Amino acid sequence: MKISALIQGLSIATVLLVAGLPAYGARIFITTPEAQLDDDPVLDVAGRPGDIIHWEGFFDTTGLTAPLQSITTYSTSSRASEGIPGEIIKFELKLAEDDPLFFPNLEEPVVYDPNTGLTTLTGFRSGPPGLPPNYIHKIVDVFATLGPELNNDGQVDYRIGVLSAIDVNGRDVTDQFQRITQEFEFQPIAVPEPSSIFSLLLAGGFGVFLRKQKRKVQA
User: Fold this and answer.
1) What's the chain's average pLDDT?
2) Residue 170 backbone zone (phi > 0: left; psi -120 to 50: alpha; other: beta)
3) pLDDT tens digits, one per residue of 148-191
4) What distance in Å separates the CA atoms of residue 49 and residue 32, rounded to the nearest whole number?
5) CB 6 within 8 A of CB 132
6) Distance (Å, rounded) from C-alpha 217 to C-alpha 219?
7) Residues 6+ apart with CB under 8 A from 37
């Protein structure tokens, strides 16, 4: 099948899906289970040291009027690097099988900043043929292994966004993308206080006692 026919078919097939989504505009997004678990303003993803957190990454070209020729994205994380401990000790990236059909050219340099303790992966993707407009395209599966430095400090541990985007006509469409799409903190799963555990045990024991008394009455 020719690439042009593939793109045309995929674009038609996904326009109905895109039409049903909120009008957020073009973006890169991921499927992490973020929630507000504490009092600080940063959303959270909870886990334990050694846990592997999995998410998928996508491009959404909603609102573009021409195919996306090239795009530069970034992901900044508190991963361990160059012997420096971090809340994430390992990242495993598995590219979507059809990603090279749209963006055959890919570079992903990684830079560690000792001043912030953060590691940034910059993704340079380019065609031809590029990505059709009004289309959702899976980029990657990510597997992040949480490390022993996992803590709840209220600081962003992972952030993704778009740095630049160019369509097939050479037009800069960066302003049609959300610049910072998602950010969150990895933090330890909360452990119940001893008093809470005692209360639960007490309530459970009291429930057993009542059931036994009920059976005695019925007998």
Assistant:
1) 81
2) left
3) 888 888 889 999 999 999 999 999 999 999 877 899 999 998 76
4) 17
5) no
6) 5
7) 44, 46, 187, 190
The three-point CA angle 174-175-176 to 5° equals 90
The β-bridge partners of 1 are none
- Among residues 29, 55, 30, which one has the least CA distance to residue 177? 29
Q: Which two tokens stand for residue 77?
A: 């994380």
Q: Could you tell me which of 145, 142, 137 has the C-alpha nearest to residue 64?
A: 137
- Of the listed ranges 25-39, 77-91, 155-169, the least confidently predicted one is 77-91
pLDDT tens for each residue of 62-74: 999 999 999 999 9
d(CA 192, CA 204): 16
Confidence class for position 83, pLDDT limits 50, 70, 90: low
Measure the CA–CA gap between 65 and 32, rounded to whole angstroms. Answer: 29
Q: Is 82 left (phi over 0), alpha (psi -120 to 50) or beta?
A: left
Tell which residue, 143, 122, 148, has the closest CA to residue 52: 143
Q: What is the CA radius of gyration of the chain?
A: 23
Q: What Cα–Cα distance (Å) separates residue 97 from each residue in 86, 127, 135, 141?
A: 30, 16, 17, 11
